[in-house]
Amino acid sequence: MNLADWLVPLVVALLTWWLTRSTTDRAIDKQFKAQAEERLYAERVKRVRLLRGLLAEIDENLAAHPVSKEGKPSPGRREVPYVREMWAQAKGEIGALPDSIIRALHNAYAEATVVNALIARTPAEGPAAEIHFMMFIDGRTDASLGFPLARTELQKWFELESMPVSPGPSRRPLFQRLSRRG
Questions:
Q1: For residue 120, what are the CA distances in angstroms to 50, 77, 108, 113, 139?
Q2: pTM value?
């Protein structure tokens, strides 16, 4: 038996095994990276949808409880409680946001909780209701004063998140770039 008779097939087999393994490893790594990116994207989409819902809820609360130009709560509509459904869903998901947004949201919704409790205990109408509410307003701010700040902070975050990262002409939308080639 000649040395070349068994060495060549052995080298070919080892080379084939090595190439197959490295190609398979690269394919598996690529698949894991793609799945991780999909997971991160899905989490980001979920968080953005949740925060957009929260922003809509803040707008609803501001519409129901307007603030005057002087920054004082407007009279009337005091019997309408603040809406808090999206906050119940979102408060566990806001940990990745900047501290200023978290603080503004917590402050606004903490005041909303207090006002909602006050609305639930206040007599429906009459002088007792007015006195009860005015004593509360004198002692602390209305929740509608915290919502504009929370809305501003959240809006800033949305603007920063949607900013394109790449510099130069690629910042233009695709349809504008394609229309100029014509």
A1: 28, 14, 18, 11, 18
A2: 0.63
